[in-house]
Amino acid sequence: MDWQWFRTQLLTWYGEYGRDLPWRPTADPYAVLVSEFMLQQTQVMTVIPYYQRWLKQLPTLADCAQAQRQDIFKLWEGLGYYRRAEYLHQTCQMIMYNYGGNIPQELAILITLPGIGRTTAGGILSHAFNLPLPILDGNVQRVLSRLFALTTPPNRNQKQLWHYSQALLDPDQPGRFNQALMDVGAGVCLPKVPHCGRCPWQNGCMGEQTQQQHTLPVREPAKEIPHRTIGVGVIWNAQGQVLIDQRPSTGLLANLWEFPGGKVEPGESVPDCIRREIQEELALDIRVGAHLITVNHRYTHLRVTLVVHHGFYQSGIPELRGCQAYAWVELRDLSEYPFPQANHKIIQALATSPSPPWPLEMAEGRVQSE
Ligand SMILES: Nc1nc2c([nH]c(=O)n2[C@H]2C[C@H](O)[C@@H](COP(=O)(O)OP(=O)(O)OP(=O)(O)O)O2)c(=O)[nH]1
Ligand SMILES: [Mg+2]
């Protein structure tokens, strides 16, 4: 295989068509680290404003290490996969306290840090330190599967894919090479419609030569995503504040705030579910009132239908039974807390209903879907 041909083709193409992205010109390893975390599972266009805001508020690794958890989550809100925010925070703290504030330049060490897998480590080391380490995210897996006509589904073919990513990599300009490879994946070798006519590797692509560019990579049949109906209560107290709680530090949507509630059990009505959940999670007695909104939302591994009712505090002192913290807050202060994506519609519905004191039971229910 003439690896040099692939390198020259790609880097020449990149010089002309490479994207102008805010993290590309930087030589600051911390800025590269932030960009790599944000780009895990998230598209470039979505990441850009988050990246810029993050570096404005936390310009150095030390700033990030010392930041409050709450501020970290707030800066990440809306970007999804919130685990990444927590890992990035922890990683910066570990680099600060265990490695004197310098990002370790050894792959074997770097991948021991929270949230850093081989691809993220390769991205950081090649970009920030120009070390010859390959990457293999979803886009790269697709490009390589086509380029070498690999007919095994990528999730069962990791070893071979890593091998190709390493073999192709330009040892002199690994940072540029990896960036260019990502641009091919994001702009040319697209999942549904590969633009082979614009590809720097067209003449060397075994997938195209065998007319498999539309069928590769081979996908394994997708699993059904389970669906759950969730009863959710917006509980009001006599001061016109509403009750929110912070989800546990592990599991789905860890550390985010929510309106208390949970899964409706078989045969249970939604109001019964809300009463039970608030008893189970916070040990409070409430009365359930009018329906506020129903929101359908799809997370990566779960689809939920949130059936939201108003509710009224009756009695009890909150106990933290299934959550980390709780707070009674004014409606206008809700925006200070990081919530799951699906909650924006709930908060919007609250903002457009009349403010308390008002006959809460009379509130009109509205149904809204995806
Ligand atoms: N309670 C609640 N759940 C929400 C909100 N927003 C949101 O996306 N959800 C999602 C997160 C979860 O996938 C689901 C709630 O399920 P859960 O995991 O809390 O269920 P649960 O209380 O029955 O807990 P468990 O018995 O499974 O531990 O709904 C919200 O404001 N309140
Ligand atoms: Mg719950």
UniProtKB/TrEMBL annotation:
Q: Which reaction does it catalyse?
A: Hydrolyzes free adenine bases from 7,8-dihydro-8-oxoguanine:adenine mismatched double-stranded DNA, leaving an apurinic site
Reported cofactor(s): Mg(2+); [4Fe-4S] cluster
Q: What's one Pfam family here?
A: HhH-GPD
Q: What is its EC number?
A: 3.2.2.31
Organism superkingdom: Bacteria
Question: Keywords for this entry?
Answer: 4Fe-4S, DNA damage, DNA repair, Glycosidase, Hydrolase, Iron, Iron-sulfur, Magnesium, Metal-binding
- Could you provide one GO biological process annotation from this protein's UniProt record? base-excision repair
One GO term in the molecular function aspect is: oxidized purine DNA binding
Q: State where 8-oxo-dGTP binds.
A: 247, 258-261, 343
Protein family: Belongs to the Nth/MutY family.
Query: What is the official name of this protein in its record?
Result: Adenine DNA glycosylase
- Which gene specifies this protein's sequence? mutY
